[in-house]
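Appendix B, Record 12. Input sequence as logged:
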Amino acid sequence: MTLRRSLSGMVWILFLNVLPCYSSGAEPKTSVDVDAVYTGLFAPSNVLIHVAQNIFNVVVTSVAWFAIAVFLEPTVGRSTEV
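Logged structural output:
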């Protein structure tokens, strides 16, 4: 069995076990509220919070790396000859 075949089999297993099955009047296997998931992913306030968190992470890590670089930067041009 190839890796590709086993991965596609795992994807189908996840697809069939996680997503609700409405065929032939069957009850859904899960109780996922699709509207709540859609609202949680695409609500403007949630998108804004996500973007703000990413900007904060970029700014803080950039400042931290610049602060670290100041202390780790080698001194160039100094002569040790007397």
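Residues 44-72 form the longest helix (29 residues).
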